[in-house]
Fold this protein.
Amino acid sequence: MNNVVAWEYPWLQDLLESFQRSHKSSTLAHAYILSGSRGLGKKQFALEFASFLTCERPSTKGPCGECKSCKLNVTANHPDVLYLAPNEPGKALTVDQIRRLSDYVHVSSHAGGARVAVLAEAHKMNSSASNALLKTLEEPHESTYLFLVTDSLGLLSPTIRSRCQRITLPTPSLAVSLEWMRALKVREFDEQLATSCLKASGGSPLLAMEMLLDESLPTRQALEHEFIACLTGNSSPDNLLASLLKSEPITAIEHILSTTAHCAKLMLVNPSESHDSSNDTGVLGGLAPSSAWDRFLEQVKTSDGDYNARRRALFGNRLVRLYDEIEKARRQLQSSSNPNSKLLLGSLCWLTSRALK
């Protein structure tokens, strides 16, 4: 919970100011769902606003950072801010954790102000935990605020979604992300490399910054090229599976998810625009196509323009269906059902090898 700097993220400024206005006018909802892609700062947003709500001297620039409450928040020890997350990576939020939340909201504020609870990876709840959370949502308490943070809104139960206000964090433009990354790097900033990292991360600046700092882009590029080779029949599903298993399952799936979306876009847009990636951010912001993909595009081209358009549309729609299957697998991995990740990835590799045949 340290180093919460959401107030320094330019793409979150409008949202933070909106929340400040709601707080000033006493119109803040008691429960919010913060959703959006990974790497946009959802958890940081929730924790920073919790600091703002409990700060003794808040301003339009955020919490003061100097009062007793702010110092307690920096060390994750504020008695009026509860942070809950799965106890282990890949595990679910337990019913015991949600019961702890229920007990927490019934206790008066230690400082006489707001009480805030943040649930990270809120979609990772089993049915018992979801039912326990519903009881808490149905009995809101004055000056108590709950933030559910999720990368997979669809995995939250419809009833829970209906009890909360939903906020989707925006994906910033390429220009905004590059400016923010440049300011952090200060010296020796490679804009071309940063742009590649942003596209590889699906437009998420925090993930792109991690990629830039830990120099993991080559690994990501190698996985993408292996995926395209399998997709176009130039490599086997076994080779793709071996590449996927080198990364964490959820990371591997998100990588091929954005690549599939990018390839589908290249099929479905006008060919004269297919290599114009200047505005590619968000889920369509994959890396530039590999030589295997370029060869595939040449192979499907004929002298009949209308036939080419129909064929591209056919392959584009097949890639959209593949995207749906990969997204379904991603949701399974993020659920509390604890699926066999190797079998799941193996199935995706086979589907990839058959997608364009």
Summary: Strands lie at 31-35, 81-84, 115-119, 144-150, 165-168.
